[in-house]
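Suppose you are handed only these lines of text.
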Amino acid sequence: MKKTVSFSKNAINVFFHILTSCNLKCRHCYINTEQHGKNKLPISTINAWLGIFTKKSIKTNVIFLGGEPTMHPDLSLAIKKAGDLGCNSITVDTNGYLFNDILSKVKPKDVDYFSFSLDGATPKTNDWIRGKGSYDTCIAGIREAVSRGFATSLIYTVSRANLHELDMMVPLIKNLGINRFFIQVIGLRGKSAEKGPEKSQVLHSQWLGIIPEIAQKVAELGVTVTYPKVFLGPKEIFECAGLADTINAWMEEFNNNILSRILYNKYFKNIRAKRIAQSQYSSFSGGKLSAYDKTIKKGSKILGWDWRLLASMIYQESEFKPNVRSWVGAYGLMQMMPKTFEKYGLDTTASPQQQIIAGSKYLKHLEGQLPEEITDSTDRIKFTLASYNSGLGHVLDARRLAMKYGKDQDIWIDNVDYFILNLSDEYYYHDTVVYYGYLRGGETYNFVNEIFKRYDDYRNLISE
Ligand code: SF4
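From them, the structure of the protein bound to iron/sulfur cluster can be written out as follows.
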């Protein structure tokens, strides 16, 4: 059963522009490379934002947009994530070029609609608006999607340039086997705003005289038809389809979760900077990060790392507290397990200095276990930190997954880190290339990110 996106109470519609690039230059485009540059969200960001907006208690309809969203190489992963998060419906809006072989990477059960944009019933009108060849490509894309069992939707943005062909869409929609037809009104944004309403928007009388009649004809084919109420009658009241209620319900829930507090702290309080500035070990009070800076510098020489990076890692583990013990038995400044202490002839009576040197040697040992193919020095550090936190086996699992899904197994950001994050997902930890099973991957992912973020702060505060 396909679900139709509509504005309703207790539902969220997430219009998610995952990139701004597009291969076309439509005359009415409001998002395009010229105006918005070439931006592409990394899959980790897409997933994080899907997580924020998807609430089990509220229906979430996700519409992936661009630019042209199929130009995003990880669109199939984003679709999968939206499905895993339990989104009410998933739609991909496309100009029909269907890049990256998207129809082969997802299945009809994964996507509620592929929604195609066509702005004319003939190549002449459509291609004048959307570009040469775009009509034939879009029609071919629709046919391909329908033949593979995908539900399809068609968006027709009505303007003065194509209103005359709207009635010709009725037989075309029937012929193509479209499931849903969306008649859109041209928005005065982007390029169409430059031209002004008199050049693009249809008249009040044209809209009211033509749109409802055509919509009725298409609906009689058994197709779901949607069109916006563009003009209000003299006594009609504007209603925003429960949008305020929906936002309020979402905010209420969002304000109570951890992520909202993290975002609030990040953007409004910047606690970390405050903590550093207040610490007795800051650049404001003698250029120190901790009481162990001297030994940390020795440890960093063993590793060949910047000492401030090692300091950031130690802060992450223990906040520079030498006697802290975790519930799993990890102990000390670098939160090493008793077995690791033993490996270096130590136990929990070890001095802070001994702990740091042993921890540095252990990090060096882990770094030596990593495949030589990881050549970038920053990547090697990230893989090492991840191995320190989760164990080398899980990191190697994530590398194998990266390779299987066409990512670069030697690069951390937006490649292996994505699969570390998802090792808590049954779909991935049951994969045949995963030998070490489940991992609370979010912990490892954050461990690496937090250390590098703090390292940036330290570099700003303390000179080498
Ligand atoms: S296909 Fe969409 S994003 Fe691309 S140029 Fe046309 S309107 Fe803009």
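What can we learn from it? The pocket of iron/sulfur cluster is lined by residues 22, 24-26, 29, 31-32, 66-68, 95, 117, 130 (CB under 6 Å). Residues 429 and 437 are 5 Å apart (CA to CA).
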